[in-house]
Amino acid sequence: MHAFAYERPTTLAEALALLQAHEPDARLLAGGTDLIIRLRDGSARPAVVIDVKRIAELDAGIREGHGRLVIGARTVMTDIAADARVVRHFIALAEAAAVVGSVQIRNRATLAGNICNASPAADTAPPLLVYDASVVAAGPSGTRRIPVDAFFVRSGQTTLAPGEIVTAIELPIPAAPVGAAHTRRTRRRGHDLASVTLSCAVHASGTTRIAYGSVGPRPVLVVDESGVLADPSAGADAKAEVFERVFADARPSPRSMRASPEYRLAMLRVLGGRALATAIDRLARG
Amino acid sequence: MMQTIPISLTVNGRVRATDVAAHHTLLDVLRDDLGLTGTKECCLVGECGACTVIVDGRAVDSCLVLAVEADGSDVLTVEGLAVDGRLSPLQEAFLDRGGVQCGFCIPGQVLAAHALLASVPHPTLAEVEEGMAGNLCRCGCYEQIFEAILAAADGAER
Fold it and tell me: Of B47, B80, B113, which residue constitutes the final position of a domain?
């Protein structure tokens, strides 16, 4: 690994000042499960690494307030998957956090880091999209909230502005019941990146939100207002027709080693059907 | 110019203070500075688990943790499992069940299993498989390793 300077700010103001002083030669370090690999292989060569884990304002906890669940930027996957409020209100996010990497990875990897890394295969992206989450970003001119759907651009690229730090992820707690599920396809069971990752949320109103990743440069959100997907009595043909529209934006890369485009497109429909069935079932159970 | 940073951490119950380079990992410092070579370097991308150690009660890949990040933390390595020269029951179970062939992955396997049993004292086979998914064994001793973990859990019950 090349040598770099290490900074460990304890306040947000200090971190923002460091970022401003060193960008574009600075990288923020949260869990490090992506960044340290890139520092080692040389694909990231910052002069300064700014460790965000001791910033007082960035907590590692999950708070509830003002109708939202707020996941601090230092919160790791293990804690998200096990949190009773996440399981109760945002089961697809709990399920996604529980399948990121291995135990060792989940004990370090943060939700904020997962989305800032902006891998098209990020497992937590689809649930955050279906739950209409927002990214809270602090910058030199204050704090702003970015809807997750407006956050992802392409692999490794987000709409986070230079000098900004993600401080938390916020999820609005649904006022009416929602049934949801996360599902994925990997080459082997256990520890692998997703060849397809997909979440589905069915609302009592009949709206179905489906988000999927690893089939294009960024994860995709599609909202179906037709009511056909959410309708337990709708036929398979009718649902398949809606699915064709839902998955029209999937553009799997022909160059990826993990799976062929044909396989990914076929699996999108299989996983979409499974996640939808689970979501409808969970909505019915309440 | 290479920056070195003083850190202090507890390793296997002993406080260790050392100066580390910012770009050296916890794995580097355990092996090269502290001489604890039980922790193995292998894939260096967080896929194989050979470098697994327990930091503040949680299993992590030490190849993906900078040593400076571990400043102030409590680290358990494979060297810290035996007490007064006696192997832990989990280590004994690995030997009893033939979970060890070449042995290279075993320190990581044992520590991942140790962390698993600390959080789930009586896991199902499925829980063992999931908890150990981050540890690869090129000899293919998975069946014996899982048996050893289940046996150690059973032994703890009696």
Answer: B80
Give the nearest partner residue to B58 out of A3, A40, A107, using CB atoms: A107
What CATH topology corresponds to A5-51? 3.30.43
Q: What is the pLDDT of residues A186-239, one digit of tens each?
A: 887 767 788 899 999 999 999 999 999 999 999 999 999 999 999 989 999 999
CATH hierarchy code of domain A178-285:
3.30.390.50
Q: ipTM score here?
A: 0.96
pTM of the predicted structure, to 2 decimals: 0.96
A40 touches chain B (CB under 8 A): yes
Cα–Cα distance, B62 to B41 (Å, whole number):
9
A36 touching B (Cβ < 8 Å): yes
- Report domain A62-172's class: alpha beta
CA separation for the pair B142, B157 (Å, rounded): 23
Distance CA B133, CA A149 (A): 32
d(CA B103, CA A208): 51
The boundaries of the domain holding residue B40 are 4-80
| Strand partners for B91 | none
